[in-house]
Design goal:
Elements: E1 7-9, E2 24-25, E3 30-35, H1 38-43, E4 51-56, E5 61-65, E6 107-112, E7 115-120, H2 133-176, H3 187-209, H4 214-220, E8 228-232, H5 239-247, E9 251-258, H6 261-273, E10 313-318, H7 321-326, H8 341-345, E11 351-356, H9 363-371, E12 373-383, H10 386-389, H11 394-401, H12 412-430, E13 433-443, E14 446-455, H13 457-461, E15 467-473, E16 479-483, E17 485-486, H14 488-495, E18 511-512, E19 531-538, H15 545-559, H16 578-589, E20 599-600, H17 601-607, H18 615-624, E21 629-630, E22 638-641, H19 645-658, H20 689-694
Parallel strand pairs: 8-9, 8-11, 9-10, 11-12
Antiparallel strand pairs: 1-5, 2-3, 3-4, 4-5, 6-7, 12-14, 13-14, 15-16, 15-19, 17-18, 20-22, 21-22
Helix pairs in contact: 2-3, 2-4, 2-5, 9-12, 15-16
Length: 758
């Protein structure tokens, strides 16, 4: 590397404020790692990155040292275009010490998927957590599969329009050539003819699909206006975005956004380090005004013509994520002649995929995201505020998500997902949109959901049928989930059931849901305890099992082919967490899709002071009684079943009859307010819940024989252990914009500030 001189003068006002981060003393000068001020950037080239090394002498004049490949390219306005990456990103001095592996001192090399970056060990200025590698691997897999589904959907739309036009012309020609034209077609005949027309149309399109390689079609779309656009709202180091660019097929535009300028600077460094500087979008380009592929091969008008698409490539930007999303609400298929005044001034179209992975709750970003996603687009949402979603802080959860969790519930892992999906669906409904969960999982200390968003005003009317209230007994683990509303006709269509009474038409009226009182349980039938109310929650499916099974098959094929899908589809590069993801998805595929929440087996047994019943025996008793049962992917002790509460307790009673539990020891908390050792009765006596439950009559035939079907369980690594110690959340990034952010006050510092808790 050689030094290129560029003279900058720092502003006279508070000059040392620019020199407060990351210094170390050299022999005759100090080398600082800092951000170039706005004055300095205005005096120099706007193409220079903000984070650089300065050699500061006694004066305020600074000499900027840049690697040769980071020099401004005056031949083009695209930063780093046509520049080769032949040296390390981080500038170095001959006096700077380096590690034995060639890394700058204080940096570690991180390789994930196809991307490599150098990350500072001594500071937490830009957020990066290795725990999230499972999150990123799963996201690459799900978005890659979505790209192929999207390519198929677009092909089918065009093909149906083409075939429909041809078949309609043939039908009109046949009608005109008919000999007898005097007879008028009856309403019944016309209805039958149209039904046959649609049937023939579907058959022809399905036959044509067999010869199309949608994996290849998705990959080729990256160079056309059919390619995808992805917006990562909070990119941090940009590692996730760059993985998307290299590992997701059909990606045309990747927008890397963060509010912290230092994060975007690090993302820019990672772009160059991985040889992707040629893929940077030319920020001088305006949105595309034309579509290069506006007609089909037969010359028909393309129904998916798009306008004002973003420039192709990787776009790095410092900005407010919510502002960017609120400004990007124009459907790409909307013709510019239909724009209003604001849209004409800022023609920013919607994204195909939006990834929200904040530090904490995604709630502040959801409203903008659900408006800036295209019809049929994919939203990837992470929430790490499990203390709120899980019930430790129910008041916070209600303020963020509009739902009240049940504290200390055994099903909190699934409850968190259903509260999040409820909140997302409510926001989408405001704009005439519905959601279709593709995959909803709990991993480590956070939730991750993938949902498709659709324009469906009719579906919004049925939204209340997918929401429910939760009634939890205050004395045991019995619970009920009741719908917010009911509609006989819609429910029959959704469930594929028929009217049992042909003489009575199913009602199409939306009626208020009913609580446990209408089920004959004004109080808990097991303990006589009252119910506490939770929710509302999402009661619809958590996953699309077709997509989940496809993902499992892809992982199994790739594992046999050195981590790469032999068919050329996703994954195109080995995923580090393949076995863990495979076990997670297998567990998801085995869950009952239509049963919200689950029982915690340890909690059930603890209620009656019994040792934990073997899960296989417990599940066997429920299956032998004629009910369905499954596990839950996040909780090893979960029992998800459609059996009513009294049947679940009958199994417990049957087990305790064969294996009598030990008497419960006296809990000192029952004698609150009494002197130690006092024999006086407790001031607030508690009913013996165990006796109330076990003394009830067993009304279900209990058989603990293991069914043969249990032996056909798929082999997978379920409930994988943490790969290393301290595998959990990480402190929030301190940020480069404020050098004092995140720092503790030094000893002896008398600077006034808010009182600190001891």
């Amino acid at each position: 590397e050689r030094e290129q001189s560029a003279r900058f003068v720092l502003p006279d006002r508070q000059p040392m404020a620019h020199l407060q981060r990351g210094y170390r003393q050299l022999t005759t000068s100090l080398t600082y790692r800092l951000g170039v001020s706005s004055t300095a950037r205005a005096a120099g080239s706007a193409l220079l990155p903000k984070r650089n090394f300065f050699t500061v002498s006694s004066s305020l004049d600074c000499k900027l040292k840049l690697p040769i490949h980071q020099q401004p390219n005056t031949a083009t306005s695209r930063p780093f275009a046509n520049q080769s990456t032949t040296s390390a990103i981080m500038p170095s001095n001959t006096n700077d010490a380096a590690t034995s592996n060639g890394l700058p001192k204080g940096y570690e090399k991180i390789s994930e998927g196809t991307i490599t970056m150098h990350y500072p060990q001594s500071e937490n200025s830009v957020f990066y957590n290795p725990v999230q590698v499972q999150n990123r691997d799963l996201s690459v897999l799900m978005i890659g599969m979505y790209a192929e589904r999207r390519a198929e959907r677009m092909w089918v739309t065009r093909k149906r329009k083409e075939v429909r036009k041809r078949m309609s012309q043939e039908q009109r020609s046949a009608t005109a050539a008919a000999v007898d034209t005097s007879s008028k077609e009856s309403k019944v005949e016309r209805k039958a003819r149209m039904a046959q027309f649609e049937k023939d149309l579907d058959a022809e399109v399905e036959a044509a699909k067999a010869s199309v390689n949608f994996t290849k079609l998705a990959q080729e779309s990256a160079t056309t206006n059919d390619g995808m656009s992805i917006f990562e709202a909070l990119a941090a180091s940009g590692l996730r975005s760059l993985r998307y660019w290299k590992e997701v097929p059909g990606l045309r535009t990747m927008v890397v956004n963060d509010l912290d300028p230092g994060a975007i600077d690090l993302a820019r460094e990672n772009v160059i380090r991985n040889g992707l500087e040629g893929a940077l979008a030319n920020e001088g380009d305006e949105h595309n005004k034309d579509d290069t592929a506006t007609t089909t091969e037969e010359g028909n008008i393309d129904p998916l013509k798009k306008y004002n698409l973003r420039p192709p490539g990787i776009k790095l930007q410092v900005g407010d994520a919510t502002h960017e999303m609120y400004m990007s609400r124009i459907p790409p298929t909307l013709h510019p002649s239909q724009y209003n005044t604001t849209q004409s001034k800022y023609p920013m179209t919607q994204y195909d995929v939006i990834d929200l992975d904040p530090y904490g709750s995604a709630a502040p970003f959801l409203d903008g995201a659900l408006q800036s996603i295209v019809d049929g687009g994919l939203m990837c949402i992470t929430c790490t505020d499990m203390a709120a979603l899980g019930g430790s802080h129910p008041e916070t959860c209600y303020g963020r998500y509009g739902a009240f969790p049940v504290q200390r519930s055994g099903y909190l892992q699934e409850l968190a997902l259903r509260i999040l999906l409820y909140h997302v669906s409510i926001i989408a409904g405001r704009y005439g949109r519905t959601i279709r969960p593709v995959l909803s999982v709990g991993m480590a200390f956070y939730c991750r959901v993938f949902v498709e968003v659709w324009d469906d005003k009719a579906g919004v009317n049925n939204l209340s049928l997918s929401h429910g209230h939760l009634f939890q007994s205050i004395k045991c683990s019995s619970f009920h989930v009741t719908p917010v509303a009911t509609n006989e006709s819609v429910s029959a269509k959704q469930n594929g059931t028929t009217n049992k009474n042909p003489n009575k038409k199913l009602s199409n009226v939306y009626r208020n849901g009913r609580g446990p009182c209408d089920l004959g349980e004004a109080v808990c039938s097991e303990t006589g305890g009252s119910y506490k109310l939770g929710g509302p929650i999402w009661t619809g499916p958590l996953h699309d099992l077709d997509v989940v099974n496809d993902a499992i098959a892809r992982l199994e094929k790739s594992e046999e082919n050195n981590g790469i899908n032999p068919t050329g589809g996703t994954p195109v590069h080995p995923l580090k967490m393949t076995k863990t993801l495979h076990g997670l998805l297998v567990s998801v595929s085995e869950e009952l899709p239509d049963v919200p929440l689950y029982h915690s087996l340890p909690a059930i047994c603890s209620t009656v002071n019994s040792s934990t019943i073997p899960r296989k025996s417990f599940n066997a008793a429920l299956v032998n009684a004629g009910y369905r049962v499954s596990a839950y992917h996040k909780d090893p002790g979960a029992v998800k079943t459609d059996a009513p509460n009294h049947v679940v307790w009958d199994v417990v009673r049957g087990w305790c009859k064969e294996n009598p539990p030990q008497p419960r020891k006296v809990n000192k908390r029952h004698r609150k307010g009494e002197d130690p050792g006092s024999n006086a009765p407790p001031k607030h006596p508690h009913s013996d819940v165990a006796s109330l439950i076990l003394n009830k009559e067993i009304k279900t035939k209990i058989d603990f024989t293991i069914p043969e079907s249990f032996a056909s369980r798929k082999k997978a690594v379920r409930y994988a252990l943490n790969p290393e110690a301290n595998w959990g959340p990480k402190a929030a990034a301190s940020g480069l914009g404020n050098p004092n952010k995140g720092k503790r006050k030094a000893d002896g510092d008398t600077t006034e500030g808010p009182a600190q808790k001891k």
